[in-house]
Amino acid sequence: MEIIISNSINTPIYEQIKEQIKSKIISNELKPNELLPSIRNLAKDLRCSVITTKNAYEELEREGYVKTIPSKGVYVNAINKNIAREEQLNKIEDLLDKAVNLAKINNITKKEINEIINILYEENK
Q1: By three-state DSSP, how is residue 41 classified?
Q2: What phi, psi does 9 have (nearest 5°)?
Q3: CATH classification at residue 37
Q4: Domain check: are 58 and 30 in the same one?
Q5: Same structural domain, 47 and 89
């Protein structure tokens, strides 16, 4: 499982791990009942603390994306795709709201914002 950690952003490492795993679950890259790497192995692979990976898994479990089976491991939960999609749409809406506010403060037009979104959308296919 590929997870990319960035030390150059303000997002805590456990949050980066959690969001990337959550994204893989929502996109069905990780399937229901699939076994995730152990906390220790994931920490070793990412070169981070086991506490960090433990926090990421605990958050995912609290949000219902994974389940821990004692002595067996952490498994992907079957999730309601509509609820997960709505959650992601809310995050996108919040980010776009910030971008629009920043654009208005700097006299950037709606047309310019749409052009930027179109370019970014095409680049990230």
Answers
A1: helix
A2: -115, 165
A3: 1.10.10.10
A4: yes
A5: no
pLDDT at 119: 93
Q: Residue 84 above 80 pLDDT?
A: no
pLDDT tens digits along 30-66: 999 999 999 999 999 999 999 999 999 999 999 999 9
Say if residue 98 is in the same domain as residue 115.
Answer: yes
Rounded Cα distance between 121 and 31, Å, is: 26
What whole-number distance in Å separates Cα of residue 125 and Cα of residue 103?
A: 25
Task: Count the domains in the chain.
Answer: 2
**71: containing domain:** 13-76
- Report the C-alpha dihedral over residues 63, 64, 70, 73, rounded to 10 degrees: -90
Match 């629009």 to its residue by tokens: 100
26: confidence class by pLDDT, cuts 50, 70, 90: confident
**Is 76:25 a contact under the CB 8 Å cutoff?**
yes
